[in-house]
Predict the 3D structure of the following.
Amino acid sequence: MLNRSKSNSFFEEAMRVTPYGVSSNYRYYGDEESVVVADAKGGYLYDFDGNKFIDYRLGWGPVLVGHGDEFVNDRVKEAIDHGVSFAGTQKYEVSVCERIIDLCPGVEMARLANTGTECTMHAIRLARGTTGRELVLKFEGSYHGAHDTVMWSTMGASLDAVGDRRRPHPVGNSLGVPKAFNDLIVLCPWNDEEVLGEILNEKGDQIAAIIVEPMLGNANALIPDESFLPYLRQVCDQYGIVLIFDEVKTGFRIAPGGAREFFGVIPDLSTYAKAMGNGFPVAAFGGKKEIMMNLKYGGVFQGGTYTGNVVSTAAADAVLQLIQEDKVFPKIEKHGMLLQDGIKEICARHGVPVSINGAPGMFGICFSEKQPRDWRELKTIPNWTLSEKIYEYMNNNGVMPEKGGIEPFFVCAAHSDADAEETLTRFEEGLKLALGD
Ligand SMILES: Cc1ncc(COP(=O)(O)O)c(C=O)c1O
């Protein structure tokens, strides 16, 4: 067992001053189990007892290059000596938009923000303002941030509460969301063209936006059927609906141009955050110029004191430059594939069925013959007890994927071949222990 004595007393101190010791509900795993970090470098985290972990959570996605990356940090250090917040346009902001437009197919203009939540909120308002409609359609199991429009039927919702898959009920993700928001959201099972077609037949002309995680980054990185995203494009064109790819997890992570490049489907708008800042709080949304130009006085409001600030945009400028110079993806892809191939090989040797979902930089593991098709199947088909036992063992032995197994593995450019080897060794030890071998 790990010695966590100093880490636990630090967490006790945290719990005295902030509810449950965390700055986000999702981070509390228990008084003695929550992750605490004293230091981080490259692909590693260290707790207050000096325990070292190969980090595959990476802040739930943002750390793309590596913790404390010098190239990114030097760009920020150089920038902040010249002021950080101006209520005016500055050079890093423009450079970041140019790099986004260069990397992401079909993005003609972009606006900057600080978090994914802000971006999905702005993109939805922009869709409503552009279409003059109010309903928003989202898919079960996806997470689009913490604002009231989208806090419905996320990963944690109970299967008993969501109702029949042909007419799903929105299940609230939080107390305090006014009931009125319930009337503005339409739920559909992800990856189900038939049910979506029926819903749109009934109310397609009242829907402002379909917002979708093109790969289910909040649900084991499930990949849609080949026809699903093209179908979304087609029906959005048919009904005059704004198609929003929420790329907060997939953007700059599953390919340099995110899901637009990976799947070859171009939505009207995309939202970006996490990987574009290597951990600095920066986000963006962008897409078609004719829609984006509605962001103006007297039109659709978007703003924020810190949007486009120097700290975040200098970081994003460096990260996107590294991607453009092809210094990130070859490393991520190599490491991700080493892990995926190794896990498949180990499972085959032990006669355990496995399906690996997602992309090299963000992948989920399901102990089942085939990939579940959607969130409902994800909850029921894979052997989650096995995942939990293996990840628990790995976390106690220096390798840190997310314990539950629903959240994907995230890979960064600083992970080494030796890290992959150690990870696979711990994985196999955990599997053997779980199987009682
Ligand atoms: C797909 C997706 N959209 C939006 C968000 C919200 O982003 P943020 O936490 O930066 O507000 C997240 C966060 O995990 C996400 O995964």
Q: What stands out?
A: The CA atoms of residues 253 and 361 lie 6 Å apart. The pocket of pyridoxal-5'-phosphate is lined by residues 60, 115-117, 120, 143-145, 213, 217-218, 246, 248-249, 273 (CB under 6 Å). The chain is about 35% helix and 15% strand.
